[in-house]
Amino acid sequence: MTSLSPNAATVARMIDHTLLKPEATADDVTALIAEAIELGTYSVCVSPSMLPLTIPAGADLKIAVVCGFPSGKHLSSIKAAEAALAINQGADEIDMVIDIGAAKAGRFADVQADIAAVRASVPAPKLLKVIIESAALTDAEIVAVCNAAVAAGADFVKTSTGFHSAGGASVHAVRLMKQTVGERAQVKAAGGVRSFEDALAMVEAGAARLGVSGSAALLAGATAIGSVDNY
After folding, report:
1. Most buried among 25, 37, 74, 173, using CB within 10 Å?
2. pLDDT score of 31
3. Which residues form the active site (predicted)?
């Protein structure tokens, strides 16, 4: 990575174009897919009940699906079954939510076991992202949960669902998460990433993927700040 900022096309390829509103309809998801293809995002991220999806032939677009969302307060066996069904219905990636209460209680072995159960249902090369709800955790808890996720075989640690009252992604959390996982895993910033400036800050802090619902508006902001064509 150079010190130059990524352009809009490069940032687009880091985006999971997301629609997780409870009121989302099949027509909304069809529109999401069309917009994702137009924008050149890496994937669409949807709720499991929206599967299976129809991706136009030739489109370079992955399907990410949430699991145990948004609270994480599901039995591990239920999360694993939900993930397995999503994979069978065409998902390429699973974004699972940990049991935040277990982390707050210091039960990091239980957090690791929960993640491992889902990992067993998401065989490589399918990707597993682990949502840790970083805004609800202390720095020490973030570090412990990230280490548990790596130990359980996660491919990514992810900041937030975007639904927690504590808030979403922060540059501090992304930087700490990346420092913790190093090259063992990647980091996804999600929750409140609304502007191109936000996106650049998260990438600079170490994010390799971005969860964004307002992708068109975010990418349109690239021109306003004069992003460059090199990365």
Report:
1. 173
2. 98
3. 95 (proton donor/acceptor), 158 (schiff-base intermediate with acetaldehyde), 188 (proton donor/acceptor)
